[in-house]
Amino acid sequence: MTRNWGIPPKDGAFRRTRNAKPLMTLGVTAVYGIIGAAIAAISFTEAREILTGLFRGLSLAPAIIAAGLGCWVYIYVAWPRFAAQFHSGDSFSDLVNFYARAAVALILFLFAVKFAGVILPDMISGALLCVSGGAAAAAAFQTVMTFVPPGSPEEGAPKT
């Protein structure tokens, strides 16, 4: 197994984009990663303010489950791009369009969850903020995975 944890190899269009426009690709990816990390930080901070002691003791379990749910929902929705597989015309445009749509979706979800706190109980509102934080953390992690070099087939093989 390669160190990409079973994610398909990054051949083809993404590699061409990264090689043709390395600084632009790195720049847009870094901006998207920063947006994801910022939304995750805002979400978890808001959740901690709503639910006192959220990240202590047993209250950590629901927060982890909610954040994990957000993470896996993001991965499920973004899977074609999570594996950096672009297959249409201009791959750089595909990358920028995906990052733009995903950033807008993450921001809108954060605002919807924050304003839903007006009508929802604190526990549900805090859990939804953790879902938002988990999705944003997955988005930030995606940008790191984008630049992880593919592992060699020998890397995971047992030594004889």
Structural commentary:
The chain is mainly alpha-helical and 160 residues long. It is built from five helices and no strands. It has helices at residues 13-20, 22-50, 60-82, 91-116, 122-146. The chain is elongated and about 50 Å long. The relative contact order is 0.23. Residues 1-8 have low confidence and may be disordered.
- Oligomeric organization of the protein chains: single chain
Report the sheet with the most strands, covering strand number, pairing sense and barrel closure.
none
Helix content: 55-70%
Strand content: under 5%
Overall number of strands: 0
Number of helices: 5
Helix/sheet category: mainly alpha
Mean of residue pLDDT values:
77
Which spans have pLDDT < 50 for at least 5 consecutive residues?
1-8
SSE succession? HHHHH
Kindly report how far apart the N and C termini lie: 16 Å
Rg estimate, integer Å? 18 Å
Assign an overall shape. Answer: elongated
What is the fold's blueprint, element by element?
Layout: H1 13-20, H2 22-50, H3 60-82, H4 91-116, H5 122-146
Helix pairs in contact: 1-2, 2-4, 2-5, 3-5, 4-5
Provide a compact summary of the structure.
The chain has five helices and no strands. The protein is mainly α and 160 residues long. The protein is elongated.
Give the tags:
5 helices; mainly alpha; 160 residues; disordered N terminus; single chain
